[in-house]
Amino acid sequence: QVQLVESGGGLVQAGGSLRLSCAASGRTISTYAMGWFRQAPGKEREFVAAISGGYGTTYYQDPVKGRFTISRDNAKNSVYLQMNNLKPEDTAVYYCACAARYGSMSNYGRQTDYGYWGQGTQVTVSS
Length: 127
Hints:
Layout: E1 3-7, E2 10-13, E3 18-25, E4 34-39, E5 46-51, E6 58-60, E7 68-73, E8 78-83, E9 92-99, E10 114-117, E11 121-126
Parallel strand pairs: 2-11
Antiparallel strand pairs: 1-3, 3-8, 4-5, 4-9, 5-6, 7-8, 9-10, 9-11
């Protein structure tokens, strides 16, 4: 059973930075795609960023391009989300997720292709 635990959330002023971490257990995640999603109050959960297994190609939702960076450390079996120039609209609960199956994904933002989810960590950006 795969378990994911997020950490690093908190309160930050607009323009500030925050780094989220996701530690995985129960599976070596190096060959699986990993993703970050977020859910704001009253909103549906949405795709933020993803990184493939293997070569580690990255994918981003348009609003965070140039501000957020997803990375992974396979030795630590962890994935990270560096968030810079944060905006109030980034306020949400952030979740990390692991792909249900190894191999390539046709759409790295498709939530149903991720089989395992963390508990979430709150990110609040004040104006």
